[in-house]
Design goal:
The protein has 329 residues and is of the alpha/beta class. It folds into two domains: 169 residues, Peroxisomal Thiolase, Chain A, domain 1; 147 residues, Thiolase/Chalcone synthase (Peroxisomal Thiolase, Chain A, domain 1, 3-Layer(aba) Sandwich), CATH 3.40.47. Helix content is 33%, strand content 24%. It is built from eleven helices and 13 strands. The strands form four sheets. It has a five-stranded mixed beta sheet, sandwiched between helices. A four-stranded mixed beta sheet has the order 8-13-12-11, with helices on both faces. A two-stranded antiparallel ribbon has the order 2-3. Helix 4 links the parallel strand 4 and strand 5. The radius of gyration is 19 Å and the shape is globular. The two termini are 30 Å apart. The structure holds oxa(dethia)-CoA. The site of oxa(dethia)-CoA has 21 residues, from helix 2, helix 6, helix 8 and strand 12.
């Protein structure tokens, strides 16, 4: 029997219109454009004032459907990777399907923080490879401004809002999602988390007063784990698939910090020209960074390009996905 692979056959992103620059932030927290730029590479980020995560996701999915000339009823499954869902339940996937009239689709949200999109790609691909579904959409999206403490300069300068969607379809050609290596280590949960609002610490006056509904990060510790593990898993997936640095056309790294991206590219032996970078424009959009990179760079991608996506995030979660690009724009 012919082997069916899952190919990415389209991508679309969405970021809110409102731009918040480093200088804008410096007006109300003790920071500077110089500090943020040199420590992270970020110059500005987008913020959604009105609406929820589903509005960003729906805009990206709508754009994708239009681009591909698809009817909402054509979609079988919608996976939404996010840590900032509209509600604890129902899922943001349910909300997006309703907003866009995707009445034949079912779906669910997936929590893997900054690794959400690669977890989603690996998961969505299974439904296509088994022959079960023909059209699966995977979204990586976050409205980080909803959980940021704008009094905490160590976190509020890093994150932004945005996301993107890809369509997965079956193919018998030598393209598509070739391999993935995914990891998780829950022992790292204490270093990057939103402490309250779940079943351990439900919302109360105390949790609000203690600012426990915001992102907390021990930046230095997360940095150490991120820089080592993202580089290691990216090199590992190359080795496993007999790819040299010449064979790899693009690295699509999670956009958390330019220094982590550089270290990963160095470990893989890749020059800067092969690395997708848009952190300066959007900051860290958590699950949104990777599809936003694919969206920004789509026109430069060619059929057959070997692409490595890699990420590290809260959980801890991390991993890499090897994709052979399936189309010319
Ligand atoms: O996406 C999910 C995974 N997350 C990551 O991968 C993030 C990993 N971590 C990082 O990217 C970095 O640790 C940060 C960008 C978060 C912080 O950079 P850093 O170089 O590790 O700085 P630091 O936390 O060690 O802080 C250095 C100094 C401190 O001051 P003292 O103690 O040296 O006087 C901070 O208080 O910088 C200070 N600082 C700031 N100064 C100006 C922290 N945040 C700011 C700020 N503006 N926004």
């Amino acid at each position: 029997m012919e082997k069916i692979a899952a190919a990415i056959t389209g991508v679309c992103g969405y970021v809110p219109d409102e731009i918040v620059t480093n200088d804008d932030l410096a007006k109300f927290v003790d920071t500077s454009d110089e500090w943020i730029t040199t420590r992270t590479g970020i110059k500005e980020r987008r913020i959604l004032r009105e609406g929820g995560c589903s509005d960003i996701a729906a805009a990206a999915v709508k754009g994708l459907l239009e681009k591909k000339g698809l009817d909402p009823m054509d979609i079988d499954l919608l996976i939404v990777a996010t840590v900032t869902p509209d509600y604890p339940f129902p899922s943001t996937s349910n909300v997006v399907c309703d907003k866009l009239g995707m009445k034949n689709a079912w779906g669910y949200d997936l929590i893997a923080a900054c690794s959400g999109f690669i977890y989603g790609l690996a998961t969505g691909a299974q439904f296509v490879e088994t022959g079960r579904y023909k059209k699966v959409i995977v979204v990586g999206v976050d409205k980080m401004s909803a959980i940021l403490d704008y009094q905490d300069r160590s976190t509020c300068v890093i994150f932004g809002d945005g996301g993107g969607a890809v369509l997965l379809e079956p193919t018998s050609e030598d393209v598509g999602i070739k391999d993935f290596i995914l990891h998780a280590d829950g022992a790292g949960r204490q270093y990057l988390l939103q402490p309250a609002g779940g079943s351990v610490s439900p919302a109360s006056i105390e949790t609000v007063e203690k600012r426990m509904h915001y992102v907390k990060q021990e930046g230095k510790t997360v940095f150490k784990f991120a820089v080592t593990n993202m580089a290691e898993v990216s090199a590992q997936i190359m080795e496993k698939n007999n790819l040299t640095s010449d064979d790899v056309d693009w690295l699509v790294p999670h956009q958390a910090n330019l220094r982590i991206i550089d270290a990963t590219a160095d470990r893989m032996g890749l020059p800067k020209e092969k690395v997708m970078i848009n952190i300066q424009k959007y900051g860290n959009t958590t699950a949104g960074t990777l599809p936003l990179c694919l969206w920004d760079y789509e026109k430069q991608l060619k059929k057959g390009d070997n692409i490595i996506l890699s990420a590290f995030g809260g959980g801890f979660t991390w991993g890499a996905v090897y994709v052979k690009w399936a189309y010319n724009s």
